[in-house]
Amino acid sequence: MRINPETVDRIKLATDIVEVVGDFVSLKKKGANYSACCPFHNEKTPSFNVNPVRQIYKCFGCGAAGDSIKFVMDVDGIGYGEALRYLANKYNIEIEEEEVTNEEAARQNARESLYIILNFAKNFYQQQLHQSDEGLAVGLSYFKERGFNNEIQKKFELGYSLDNWDAFSKHALEKGYTSELLEKAGLLIHKEGSNATDRQSRGYDRFRGRVIFPIHNVAGKTIAFGARILKSDKNQPKYLNSPETEVYHKSDILYGIFQAKNAIRQQELCYLVEGYTDVVSLHQAGIENVVASSGTSLTIEQIKLIGRFTPNITILYDGDAAGIKAALRGLDLVLEEGLNVSIVLFPDGDDPDSYVRKVGAEAFKDYLRKASKDFITFKTETLLQDAGNDPFKLATVIGDVVNSIIKIPDAIKRQVFFHRTSEMMKVDEQMLITEGNKLLRKLHAQKPQERSSRSANNVPNGPGDLNGMRAGRQSANSGPDHNPFDGPPSDGSPFDGPPEGLFEPSFQEDDQALQRSKLYYQEEAFIRLLVLHGTRELEPNITVCQYVLGEIQGIEFKDPIFGHLLTLFRENFNQNNLLSTSYFKNHREAEIRELTITWMSSRHELSELWLSKFEIYVPFETDVLDKTAFNNILRLKKEFIEEKMHLCMQQQKNAKSEEEQMSIMQEFLHYKEISMAAARDLGRVVG
After folding, report:
1. CATH, residue 239
2. Is residue 503 assigned to a domain?
3. Which of 91, 167, 510, 603 is least enclosed, having the fewest CB within 10 Å?
């Protein structure tokens, strides 16, 4: 089955890209648009732009671009149909489906099957918790003992697995799910040595006799389970997690992120704890901006996930020696990502779960406020206490702390921490800075080798590598001989002005992009004008498309994608059909869609103060389309003619007779005259 086109249209009309993107990253209002750090590549300064008028997003760093559907597909790593279902569920749209061929059905995404069986398992475990005698007596009693009320149990969809060899798998097989799918989802285990004929009979449930904590992705889908055993069994681990699957990579996810993301965004702070029960207890106490690393060491992917919603993270650790050592390990990674890290240690013998139950919600919140220390201060105090008066240990402490400070990307923050550390250690601040600069120089010396290694291994740097679109093809703005009228804004945005400095070099830029000719950029500027404004009228009954196509008869474009677009315009115009921007924005070819969104996106936005305060009127591109179209045609013809002139020069070198040389020279002078006329019309000085 597939979603019918009418339902797809309803989904597209209902979605609001600000709401959709806002579920995954923390957006900040910036004029008429919204900005954030890009979720698709690592960056410290926001270059990810969301345009609510056009319902598109564009990252000016990695080149990622698209609409709500494309965003959900990329951010959650799912297929087109799955993204549509997610949006339909979000906006309460009933999905109408139609039959597909057997071949199409066979190609359906295996990930969707995993989501279905995992959701089925979650519902089964919930049912066993509340409806089976064992679940009520064992599982529910445990949750009540921890103080988890019915509301919090429903919020986190807690469950119970029966202490039975195959209770779940037997039920799933009866419902038509295959043994192979159960195994792929990490729900079924086969004994070592079993073969194809007896695999089903010798399989057993992974989770047995345990309370179940479903693990959700950012979109709220069940992707895995954590399970705690309740009886004493030295042969069984206390906690058991799902194995890695196609939809679950434990280093990429944080327990509770779906339930916590809105609170994290609103409070601009994320509390990080270690265990499932810590998260659930704090949520019940009204502290909802909390997630857990589920007992694993904090990874760079988890840090980036938090960074989507806030730059501020406070890590809550047990107060014992192991907790203190854990607090000092690996947190340089958080600093490198530009996050502001604080630490809270609890009294010996307590963890967040036990402490909030002991003192209550308000006292717990008050403790967090008073006990919180930034990571550098915490690390300095802890290491100084261990070093005592030993000068060698003190020297080691200084080097260790300085090594953490230099991981902070922001120079001003580094300066603040150098100053504070010098006061705490009673050492000269300039000495700390000098030591930090030495370490930074060493790091910078290593970076060219790292870049060289990445290039040699052809490592993709962002979603642009996967989408098949070269980030170098970002805009005509970056090309030679560009003028203000070629800038990216269209009807809703003012001119960006001259191109210099507008776009940062993309880390996907390649040698081909750097060697593009002037003609390439003029072709792009010409096609961009057609895509964004082709249907607009320059004069009554004369559209931009009609005018510019009539002026370039006989000219064919050299770049394949621009030539393809020009052919589309010509063929449709000959059939009295004008192609709109929307046609290209939703085109079936990904490269055309992404080019269109790139051209629709403006990185810079004109302040309203220009007109309201300074009484300076800056025209929009739509105000001067006639001039823009005229100049684009002239520049295109000029570059086209200069290519002809270059060809004449090459031919003259190979001419075999004086007559042939004279003929080529006359052709060259003819083209030269046309080029000079075009230059004069463009207002350029001709030498």
Report:
1. 3.90.980.10
2. yes
3. 510
What percent of the chain stands above pLDDT 90?
24
- Supply 645's token pair: 């002139």
Q: Are 281 and 147 in contact (CB under 8 A)?
A: yes
**Polymer length in residues for the chain:** 687
pTM passes above 0.85: no
Tally of domains within the chain: 4
> Mean pLDDT, to the nearest integer, of 313-333?
75
Residue type, 402: V
Say whether both 143 and 200 belong to one domain.
Answer: yes
Please, which pLDDT band fits residue 484 given cuts at 50, 70 and 90? very low
Domain with 165, as residue range(s), is 110-246
- Please tell me whether residue 244 adopts helix, strand or coil conformation: coil
SS (H, E, C) 225-238: EEEEECCCCCCCCC
Cα torsion 324, 326, 330, 336: sign: negative
Band (pLDDT 50/70/90 cuts) for residue 477 is very low
60, 120: one domain: no
Distance between CA 82 and CA 91 in Å, rounded?
A: 14
Specify if 662 maps to a domain.
Answer: no
Which residues in 305-347 belong to E strands, given as ranges? 312-317, 340-345
Same domain for 171 and 217, yes or no, is: yes
- Per-residue three-class SS string for 549-586: HHHCCCCCCCCHHHHHHHHHHHHHHHCCCCCCHHHHHC
Asked if residue 668 belongs to a domain, the reply is no
The answer, yes or no, to whether residue 382 has pLDDT greater than 70, is yes
Residue range 599-615: average pLDDT? Answer: 71
Final residue of a structural domain among 246, 276, 301? 246
Q: CA 144, CA 280: separation in Å to the nearest integer?
A: 12
* Residue 265: band (very low, low, confident or very high) from pLDDT cuts 50, 70, 90: confident
What values do phi and psi take at 197, rounded to 5? -75, -30
Residue 273's contacts (CB-CB under 8 Å, 6 or more residues apart) are 279, 282, 290, 291, 292, 293, 316, 351, 352
Q: Are strands 373-374 and 340-345 parallel, antiparallel or unpaired?
A: antiparallel
The span from the CA of 103 to the CA of 547, in Å, is 46
What one-character DSSP code corresponds to residue 500?
A: T
* pLDDT the model gives residue 370: 92
**Ranges of H-type helices in 186-312:** 257-267, 276-284, 300-307
